[in-house]
TrEMBL record:
Subcellular location field: Secreted, Extracellular space, Apoplast
One GO cellular component term: apoplast
Family that this chain belongs to: Belongs to the germin family.
CDD domains named among the record's database cross-references: cupin_OxOx
Organism: Nelumbo nucifera
Matching Pfam families: Cupin_1
Residues annotated as signal peptide: 1-17
Protein name: Germin-like protein
Superkingdom, taxonomy of origin: Eukaryota
Disulfide links within the chain: 23-38
Residues at which oxalate binds: 101, 106
Length: 207
């Protein structure tokens, strides 16, 4: 019996020694599809595992909204762990336009104000709700969704993701903030030339 216990302890020790506890991002190295390279353990400090989202974002912009990310690029201790967070600030009238996170499911928690939000599934069904303080909503990975401040005071939410780098594509920017020729945008959006050029001018596109 003692021999068996000794054998198991050796196997456990060998297996434990081959597993890394963490892979803090080495931000001096390029990011690859699997994330960042690991910082050498001797250079890791407790500050790699701590980050603050206490400061409000700057909402003085065209959408009156700010997203402050805590992804691997900002919070190196998250690298490889499959989680991340962000802070969302929405001034009155603020909106996060229709967008998607190709690499993660999102969970949103409202901590101040009210937020009207929805996601749209692949069958074009809409899941719409106005959330108040303490409410949580989940957005399945890759589905289009948006958030709008539904009240007269600034709204604040914290969002978590099932990836340390969830990715982001904003629909309006994808259509109108690039050099795709206006005639092609017209054909693919059913908008007329004047509307397309107006949106390109607002969002910094050309063509």
């Amino acid at each position: 019996m003692l021999h068996i216990l000794f054998l198991f302890s050796l196997l456990f020790s060998a297996a434990r020694g081959s597993v890394q506890d963490f892979c803090v991002a080495d931000l001096t190295a390029p990011e690859g599809p699997a994330g960042y390279s690991c910082k050498k353990p001797a250079k890791v400090t407790v500050n790699d595992f701590v980050y603050s989202l206490s400061a409000a974002g700057n909402t003085s912009n065209i959408i009156k909204a700010a997203v402050t990310p805590a992804f691997a690029a900002q919070f190196p201790g998250l690298n490889g762990l499959g989680i991340s967070m962000a802070r969302l600030d929405l001034a009155p009238g603020g909106v996060v336009p229709m967008h998607t996170h190709p690499g993660a499911t999102e969970l949103l928690l409202v901590v101040q104000g009210t937020i009207t939000t929805a996601f749209i599934d692949s069958a074009s069904s809409v899941y719409l709700k106005t959330l108040k303080k303490g409410d949580i909503m989940v957005y399945p990975q890759g589905l289009l969704h948006f958030q709008v401040n539904a009240g007269g005071i600034p709204a604040i939410a914290f969002v978590s993701f099932s990836s340390s780098n969830p990715g982001l594509q904003i629909l309006d920017f994808a259509l109108f903030a690039n050099s795709l020729p206006t005639p092609l945008v017209e054909k693919t959006t059913f908008l007329d030339e004047a509307q397309v050029k107006k949106l390109k001018a607002v969002l910094g596109g050309s063509g």
